[in-house]
TrEMBL record:
Catalytic reaction annotation: oxidized coenzyme F420-(gamma-L-Glu)(n) + a quinol + H(+) = reduced coenzyme F420-(gamma-L-Glu)(n) + a quinone
Domain of life: Bacteria
Protein species of origin: Actinomadura meridiana
InterPro entries the UniProt entry points to: F420H2_quin_Rdtase, Split_barrel_FMN-bd
UniProt-recorded name of the protein: Nitroreductase family deazaflavin-dependent oxidoreductase
A Pfam cross-reference name: F420H2_quin_red
Length: 133
C-alpha cells in the first residue's frame, strides 16, 4: 500500500497510474508552499470533482489541529494540483458554512471515516475547494 513520500513519488513517476486509485477511492497530489520555510510540500489527498474544481478535506484523522498543508494554503492559497497526468495551478479556498453541507456529504460518501473523524474533535473540519487558476 502506498503512503506518504512513496505515494507521492510513484504517483508523480507514473502520472497517477500508481497512486491515483487508493483503498477504494481516488487521490490527487496537492503541493503547498510552506508558510515558514517557503519550501514546496506535496501531499496525497482523497478528492472528488465538483464542476471544474476539486474537493479535499482537511481532516488529519479527526485531530484537534489542522493539517500542515491546510495551514500552508491558508497563508498562501496558490497551490499546485496533480490529478493523474493533469498538472495545474489552482487557488484553494475553504468552503463557506453555506456551501459545506452538500460538499461534506459528497466527500463522506467516498470516505465514510470523515464522519467519524468529525466526532473525534471540536474543530470544524474544513472542506477545501481547489479552483483552477
Amino acid at each position: 500500500m502506498l503512503f506518504g513520500k512513496e505515494h507521492v513519488a510513484r504517483y508523480q513517476e507514473t502520472d497517477g497510474e500508481e497512486g491515483h486509485d487508493w483503498q477504494g477511492t481516488v487521490t490527487l497530489l496537492l503541493t503547498t508552499t510552506g508558510r515558514r520555510t517557503g519550501k514546496q510540500h506535496t501531499t496525497p489527498l482523497i478528492y472528488q470533482p465538483e464542476g471544474d474544481a476539486y474537493l479535499v478535506v482537511a481532516s488529519k484523522g479527526g485531530d484537534d489541529d489542522d493539517p500542515l498543508w491546510y495551514k500552508n494554503l491558508q497563508a498562501n492559497p496558490e497551490v499546485k494540483v496533480q490529478v493523474k497526468g493533469d498538472r495545474f495551478t489552482a487557488r484553494a479556498r475553504t468552503a463557506t458554512p453555506e456551501e459545506k453541507p452538500p460538499l461534506w456529504s459528497k466527500m463522506a460518501a467516498v470516505w465514510p471515516d470523515y464522519d467519524q473523524y468529525q466526532t473525534k474533535t471540536d474543530r470544524d473540519i474544513p472542506v477545501v475547494i481547489l479552483e483552477r487558476a
